Amino acid sequence: MKIQQVLRRAGIVLAGTLATCVIPSYAADQYSLTPASELKWADTGPQFPNTQVVILDGDPGKQNVVALRWRCPSHYKFMPHTHPGTERVTVLSGTIQVAIGEKYDPAKLTEVGPGAYFVIPAKAPHYGECIEETVLEIHTPGPMGTKYVNPADDPSKKM
Questions:
Q1: Using one digit for the tens of pLDDT, what is the confidence trace for 43-76?
Q2: Cα(126)–Cα(119) distance, integer angstroms
């Protein structure tokens, strides 16, 4: 099954370039190593336009642990949304501001940089802004999905 079909089924609509992103086909107990130079970044798609993702491990459309990296450009603002599973996030590079809440409130944003780690509980609405180009590594259970608190904030609905 193509990665787009898997992620679409999981509630994540991704652009065609994600076809180059490969879900590892090894068993969970097998050793695996992928050099950074071989990671295949792809456009995330209309729910998070102008961002990129690479699936490191797992199948986003199935019940399993998924490891991915998400890259956002400078001044990228994302409105309150939820995911079905808890997100465990490490900031690999850049600076991001994040907050929990159903309404975007800049006064509640907390700035975090490289090396920071935060957890967003399942179904907790969260929002933020990438201050500069930022790369996050996220570990979350599948199946994955995204739901905007205010459907009008969903960029995929504005296309």
A1: 998 999 999 999 999 999 999 999 999 999 999 9
A2: 11
Q: Contact, 44 vs 70, CB < 8 A? A: yes
Domain membership of residue 79 as a residue range? 3-158
The DSSP annotation for 64-133 comes to SEEEEEEEE-TTEEEEEEE-SS-EEEEEEES-EEEEESSS--GGG-EEE-TT-EEEE-TT--EEEEESSS
The letter for the amino acid at 37 is S
Helices and strands counted in the chain (H then E): 1, 11
Number of domains in the chain: 1
Q: What is the CA radius of gyration of the chain?
A: 15
- pTM, rounded to two decimals: 0.81
